[in-house]
Design a protein that fits this description.
The chain is about 85% helix and about 0% strand. By secondary structure, it is mostly helical. About 0% of the residues have low confidence.
Length: about 375
């Protein structure tokens, strides 16, 4: 009778897992269908989650919830507005400078870089690589991309529905962000009530760990990207590079992938210094900017703001962003890193459960040999 009850319990547990798997697949299918609609909601939820700790801190300082939300929301809006007013004209000027500088980069690549590589390596690169053809292809694709962009912009401007949807998203984003900030704690509490009671403690523990990982990665890494982008931009501008601000901002944005941000400073900054000045003094200036940025990031920014709780490998970060963008578009790219961080927490939990299970440890051996037992085949030692 007990064996039959055990079998029924096993079957019931299997069916429960099948049901939860079906629910998860259904949710993913709905996300895939509603990805264009959910993008402003996901971005607003992300902004609300980022600002909720500040709202809670103001509440502990005797501010009412609505007052704290208004203060945080106003500060976030002001920061975004100031960043847009300052950065957009600056980046536009930098892009214009880059376009005008492309012929100089082509001449440096053909006349200086390739001959230097051929002299050092003995390879005859110019014999099988046609630089003019290469740059012609790049220019054709650039013009084609510009034509596609103009076509898309023209379609958006002609399509009243698409333009209306874009304006609706722009208007919805601040409204949704405000409500997420105001009701974040209430939403979290209501979601917690939906968790089955026999799993509530486990889910609560995993949620706290996921929040710590996400806080370290998103809040901390965002501040690291911002500070390093400003530092690199000011440093390269101080060296005298015409494209220093653009290179610094790009390097700061790429900092979320380990080693890619510093590598971009060395490669892009070094090439820009050699093309613009052609001497080792300015190349040394780029190296100084890189060294100072790495020291500040390694010894202060990352330990203080991010910590070591993330554990996301650079390949996992790149895969998460590309896979999310391929599957769900902009919404997938927006949620790729948070989902990857939470998945990392769940995988660590699954690993702990696996190493504590009998599947990993196996059954106890029926015959246990003493540590000093003689190995099979070993006879008694010969007597003198």
């Amino acid at each position: 009778m007990s064996e039959r009850q055990d079998d029924l319990a096993t079957i019931a547990a299997f069916y429960r897992r099948v049901q939860w798997t079906a629910v998860a697949l259904g949710v993913l299918w709905l996300l895939w269908l509603l990805a264009p609609v959910l993008s402003p909601f996901a971005l607003a939820a992300l902004l609300g989650w980022l600002g909720d700790p500040l709202v809670d801190r103001l509440e502990r300082a005797r501010f009412k919830r609505n007052t704290a939300v208004i203060l945080v929301f106003s500060a976030m809006s002001l920061l975004l507005l100031v960043a847009a007013v300052i950065l957009v004209p600056m980046l536009e000027q930098q892009i214009v400078t880059l376009v005008h500088s492309l012929p100089g980069y082509r001449d440096w690549f053909v006349g200086t870089a390739l001959p230097w590589v051929e002299q050092r390596t003995g390879l005859e690169i110019l014999s099988w690589l046609d630089p003019e053809r290469l740059f012609t292809l790049i220019r054709e694709h650039w013009e084609r991309a510009g034509g596609i962009a103009a076509t898309v912009l023209g379609y958006v401007s002609r399509s009243g529905f698409a333009l209306l949807g874009l304006l609706a998203n722009i208007v919805l984003l601040p409204v949704l962000t405000f409500f997420f900030l105001r009701d974040w704690d209430l939403l979290v509490a209501r979601v917690g009530l939906l968790v089955p009671r026999d799993h509530a403690d486990t889910v609560r523990t995993l949620a706290r760990e996921s929040d710590a990982v996400l806080g370290g990665f998103l809040r901390g890494q965002f501040l690291v990207m911002l500070i390093l982008g400003v530092l690199y931009a000011i440093g390269l501008w101080g060296v005298g590079l015409d494209l220093g601000i653009l290179i610094g901002i790009v390097a700061g944005l790429l900092t979320f992938v380990p080693y890619l941000g510093p590598a971009s400073i060395v490669v892009f900054g070094g090439i820009a210094a050699m093309v613009q000045f052609g001497d080792w003094q300015h190349l040394a200036g780029v190296a100084v900017v890189f060294t100072v940025g790495q020291i500040i990031e390694s010894y202060w920014l990352t330990p203080k703001l991010v910590g070591d709780r993330i554990g996301l490998h650079p390949m996992a970060v790149i895969f998460a962003v590309t896979a999310g963008g391929t599957l769900f578009g902009f919404l997938g790219m927006l949620l790729a890193l948070p989902v990857a961080a939470v998945a990392n927490v769940l995988l660590r939990y699954a690993h702990e459960r696996y190493t504590a299970s009998s599947l990993y440890a196996g059954e106890q051996p029926r015959i246990v040999l003493a540590p000093d037992a003689a190995a099979p085949g070993d006879g008694p030692s010969p007597q003198a």
